[in-house]
Structure formats: C-alpha cells, structure tokens
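Q: What structure does this chain adopt?
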Amino acid sequence: MTTIRDRLLKKMQRQIAESTTDDLEKTIGLTRFHLALLVNDKHITQEDADEVIRSGSELCLLAARRTKPEKEKRKPRLSMKPEAESIGPDGVQTKQNIVLIPGKHTTSDGELVEIGMARFTNAVLAKIPEGTLYQRAGILGQVQDGKFHPISPSALRFIIDNSLRLASWHRDRESQAQVLDFEHCIADWAGVVHSMAGRHAQTRELRLIVNHPVCTADGVSPPGYHKGIYHHGEVIIPNMDIAACSAILDDLVIDFPFAERADKHNYFGLLVTPFLRLLIDGPVPMHMIMSSIERTGKTKLVDDVFGRIVLGGPCPAMQLSASDEERDKRFTALLSRCAEAVHFDNLNDFIDSAALCSFITARTYSGRVLGRSEITDFPQDLTIIGTANNPKGTGEIVKRCVPIVLRPDREDPQNRSEFAHPDLAAYVAENRQRILGVLLGLCLHGLQNRRRYIFGGFESWASLVGSVAHVAGWEAWRTNAEAWSVEADQETLDLRAFVDAWLKKLGICSVPLSLLHPVARDANVFPKVFSKPTERGQLTSLGFLLAKHVNRPVFRHRIGRSMQGNNALYYLEPLKGPEGPGEVPVENTEYL
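A:
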C-alpha cells in the first residue's frame, strides 16, 4: 500500500526528471533543501534522499538525449528561374519551356500577368516538339513504330509534363519574395488542350502511314512526314527497266496456280495500287482472291506477298461479321487507325452487304468512333482484299470486285512439295527493297504514259493502274472481270434465265403477275421466292423482286411495268442497241 511518504518522494523525483537541462541544478538544489528537512524530522533516511536526487537526475538526462534537436529556421525555397515573359507571344518558342497556368500571376518584378485558357492552350501546343502530335479526321494521336495510336486527355497530360514546365508565381512565406513554382498538368487543362490540338498548326494532318514510298503530285514521297503522308521506311531507288521488272514479278508468283493470265495480271494491279493511292481521285475496287477449294495459296498471296511487300509484314485479317451494324463499326475502327489495307478472310459463299458496298465505293466514309457520340468523316484510302472459295454475291458486290482466281491441279494442294521459293515469306523479306523498286519504277512509267479506261465508279483507279498495266505488258488485266461478274451474280443469272423463258412463252406483251409465276417456277429460278410455302406468298415475293428490277436492261430488253386499275402488268421493251464501253486512249501526260 502506497503511503504519504512514498507519494512525496515520487513527486520530488518527477520534479527533477521533468526539468530542462538548463534548470536541472536549480531544481536539484531546491529538492535537496526539502529532503534535508524530512531527514532532520526523521521522516526519511539520508539514503532515501540521495536515491531521489540520483534517479531524478538520470531520468532528466535520459529525456534530454531523446528529445529531437530544435528545427533550424527554414531557408527560403529555391524556385524555377523567374522569367516574366516565359509564356511568350502565341506560337513563338521562348528560351525556356515554361508556360504559366491559367489565372492571375504577380511576377518578381511586380508585374500582373493574366493567363486565359486560349493563351495557355496555344502556348502549350507551341512548346510541344514538332512531330509529337498528329490528327486524323479530328482524332488526336501519335505515330509510333509506323502506326497511328489515338491518345486520350489523360495520355496528353503525360506528354505535356514531359515536354514543358507548367508554373505559377507564389509568394514565399519566409522571404516574402515572388517565386515560380512547378505545377503538374491537371485533367481539366489537358482536356482543353486535347480538344483544341487538332486545329493547331503544330499538330500534323495525317492521311496515310505507309511502309513504302508512294507517288504524289510532287514526285515520290521521301521517308518521314510529308504533306499528310508518313513514310515509315527507307529511300527506294526505282527500277526503270521494264523487262527486268516483269521478270522479277513473274518469278515472285511463280508458285501460284493462277487460272488465267488475267488473274495474274489482276494481282499485279493489286500490288501497284497502294503506290498510286494518293493520286487516285476516287474509290478502289475490292480485289477478290478465290479458288474452288481451300489451301490453294489465297492467304499466302495476301500475307506473304502483298503484306510483306506493301506493309512490311502480314496483312491483318478480319472477319466481315454477320450484321451491317457491326461491319460499320469495324470499318470505322480501321479508318481511325489509319490502316493502309485490310484482308476480309474466308468470306461466305454468298456475299450480300450494303455496308460493304458503301465502304468500297466511298471517297469519304462517315462513322461513329467508339467512345465518342459524334459522326466523323474519314478519307477512305484502304486497299480492300477478300478471300473466299467460289463466292457468289449480289450484283452490287461483284461489280465492285476485281477477280483473282487460283485453279489447283490436285485435290490436296496443301501437300505440294515442289516450289521455286519454299520459304516464300523469307524470300520476299530478303528481296523486299528490290521488289519495291520494281513496283515504283512501273508506276512512274505508267504515270508518264497515261491512258483512260472505263470501269463504272472506279475510273480514276482504272486509268492509273491501267496505264501501268499497259506499259508493263499486262495485256490481260481485267479481261476476266465481266465474265466473272456475270457468273458470280446469281440473281442476274436467274433474271436472265427468267427473261429468256418469259420471251419464249409470253413474248413482250403486258401480262399479269399470275402468268409470270409459272414461268419462273418452270425456269427453276429465284429460290428465295419459291421458298415461301403458299402460292400467295410466292406471288407477293415475286412482285417485290420484279418491282426492284423495273427499268433494268436484261438480254437487250428492259423490264417495264404499267398499272391497269389496281393490278400491275409487266412487259419487256426491246432496247435500241448496246453501249460501246472500252478503252479510250488520251494524250500522254508528263509526270512531274
């Protein structure tokens, strides 16, 4: 049990321990006086008094050693080098990459500087190094490793902090001087800069990224950026020896079983198309590589030859997808990435897509970029390639295609072992520079000897590629296109058979739909019409089909329709004569 004596001694010990080192001797003296009185009155012994002094002193010294030394007065902090004119005139680089943040600032000279968002944005974009930012159809991005990568406002914050120093003037508490402090880029500022960057002169307009030179109005594109073209490659010396060029190309595809010379020449036309793309004022048809069975070399023609020559690697393959809505999204994604070519692999036996038709013939393609609630217009500069086994399609599709047919001479073409180039990919990679020189030289020859060719909707492409085909000796180029379009267009084949039976059974006079129904049934055409289970349904479907083809020429006759009361009557009107499409030579044009 603690007594009054013990509590008193403890209190005296605490008084010594809690004193400072400066007051320790004074506190010990006072405590020693009180302890002496207690010893004289025989309340404690001298040993108890000495123990209080000793233990209290030890505790005081121990506490002094544990106490941190008093903080030194803070020195005035260093700031960025003051420069009142650091923001500079709009669009002019200053000596230091310093930009004042939006707001009011008082400089070290006492000058009041007010920075608005417009001045801030222009200054930031002016100080970002040239060649850092590109924009394609309003999409801001960077070119890295020969590819366009869109960037978000968050990514732009990193670019800004890495390219320049944002700063603000503040008063230092100790020195009371104005100092220039570093500020990191916040999301709001980056968002404003991101929204305005596409309109700034420092941001480069991007139309094409290529791994090979292309022909432009000024000549051949140099490596690097030049007027919307980013050439991610080396200087290529054109091979102007036409005979040598033809031999090199023939050797390149010697292992592929082209059905006819036209198919090989059509493929050569595909190879030169990317080199002429900038000069083609309009769309480019889809090149359809096909065969009767799989594993005949269709994908090798796309990847190992076209891809490794034009793109420097395999051509990205994409499925066409089932719905036009999904196709539209994929087309927009391709264009937003500034892709140069696309390969639609393993197309269906029957191709019917309004979105694909629009995509092929569009000069400018409008689509919604994922993540943005606005419609963006893209220049449609893609070279489109499709592969399939004996495909058919609507007339809108097949008339937009250039056929390239492979005809295998055995039922297991994948087991072939005799090749002039066993490792085709390695051969193309090793000889890529030489092949690029061949294609570039042929293009230059064709541009110096321009001719005009007719191909509905693709006149500019036909004239430029046709001129190259003429000088290169590809005399069979596109000579198989009309025959294939007729063969592949099943609806047109059925319509021709139907009109032929119609003429033989009913003549050209006006007849009701009920009389045309048995004609179509006996001719075994229009499977969709006769897939309806009832005759009434078949008549309705046949009426819709004929209404779609009213005024269409078929077999030198035009399908016509007249009304007799509420009933439609159909008739055939003879045409006066065929049109005369063909090649129309024009005066040679010098190519600068």
